[in-house]
Amino acid sequence: MVSVLLALGSYLLLGFCTASSLRSDRTKRSSLCYGDLGCFSNDYPFNNTDGALPLSPSHIRPAFLLFSERSNPSAPFQLVRNDRHNLWTSGFESSLPIKIIIPGFTQNGNVTWAHVMMSELIRKERMNVIIVDWGNGSGFPYTQAVANTRVVAAEVAAMISYLNTAVGTTSTQYHLIGHSLGAHVCGYVGQIVRGLGRITGLDPAEPNFEDTPTEVRLDATDANFVDVIHTDGTEYDTISGYGMKAPCGDIDFYPNGGRNQPGCTHETWTNVVSHLELGPHAVGGMLACSHDRSIYLFTESINGRSCTLKGHPCNSYEDFVVGRCFSCGNQPCPSMGYSAASFRARGKFYLATLDSPPYCGNYYQVTVQFGPTMSTDHGELRLRILGTSGLSQTFTIQSTNQQTRRDDGFRQGQERKVMVVSRNYLGNILNVQAQFQEHSSILSYFWTGAVSLSRITVTDGKTEARYLFCIGETVLHSGQPLVGFNHAVHTTAGCPPGQ
């Protein structure tokens, strides 16, 4: 076990920490030139690689794997730049949209998620899909892979320029989709080929890129439209925080706050050790769970029909989850993922997802009004919503303020809001069930705490219908079974006097 731990620790440190001992004569030089791809320097601002310079194109040998609805997914056609016969026999259709998928660190063109995404794209509409295989340059050490992204980008840009010249495609036809380091490759391509139609950054890599100048990382000027999905933006600590926190697109989506995705095991060294007996793939899957979630959210959005991943403008995710940002004003809430370019919204947007596929859920805003005469008490309110089409999971409202972490208790006349995500659409709301559970304390031995509720409002995020439950001043004693409230008033007005 000790040897396994040492090996794992070495693996992680080699991948994401600086690797001064691995410097060669090549990394000590300040620049290298690779023919028509140009010259590459490790001087500022490209001093984010611990001195490493890109490996040669002949070493990386990026491959461009072309797929279309007419091609065999298991036998893609490999495009070769400056080979007209190769292009004429490829099946490439210059009049169609072109999607280019660029994987990230330690990945190659055979990675499963890229092929699943390709299949979903082709199912969506007729298009050309190209997967860039740069597996010979995407591996350890991480700083070398970071350096290699610039040569890979130069190769991609050269291929786009070749296609524009050879068959008359235009830069606006191209939509580049990159994950992790692949997102920054997309950004570099956009700096070389101006006027790209769109870049989608899937959790752009944070190590060696956060807080760097815009020419070093993906940013909003790299294409006509740049959308970014952030899913692993905790502080980087070798085993977590692989994605950027800072916004870097025209529109930046932060599902679940852009960190600690639901359904992912929290990345701690204790959990790493507990996953070792399951094998390296289990450890890798755990460490990359939040980082990779951006891939699966985007892929789900391509052909998602029953539900759309709507983002909401908000000051913070904490404000979002307590229901302060339910509306998008006069503009429609933008959809995260494939359809993001169809919306005019710009800036930071928050949303919540479920913990397993399908990740898209149905939003409900629940507002609870506490009674006017109750005494302050501390604990949690547990609620469920029943509609004509189903029952929600149980959700809670805590007396502890989630932003300040202070427990000021539930107080008389106070209004509390919460955002609920339900896997199923509930239909017309019929009933709300509530239960109070006070926090345990020494005083709990002497009496049972209680809260009173005077009004509950449920707003349907899909239809914006508002259901009002006027319940007088109903007392909920701690530990009492769930109490159901019926007779919702489907109205925009308030409760009648005395209710």
Automatic annotation (TrEMBL):
SUPFAM superfamilies xrefs: alpha/beta-Hydrolases (SSF53474), Lipase/lipooxygenase domain (PLAT/LH2 domain) (SSF49723)
Gene Ontology MF term list: metal ion binding; triacylglycerol lipase activity
Residue ranges constituting the Lipase domain according to the UniProt record: 31-359
UniProt record, GO biological process: lipid catabolic process
Gene Ontology CC terms: extracellular space
Signal peptide: 1-19
Protein name as annotated: Inactive pancreatic lipase-related protein 1
Lineage of origin: Eukaryota, Metazoa, Spiralia, Lophotrochozoa, Mollusca
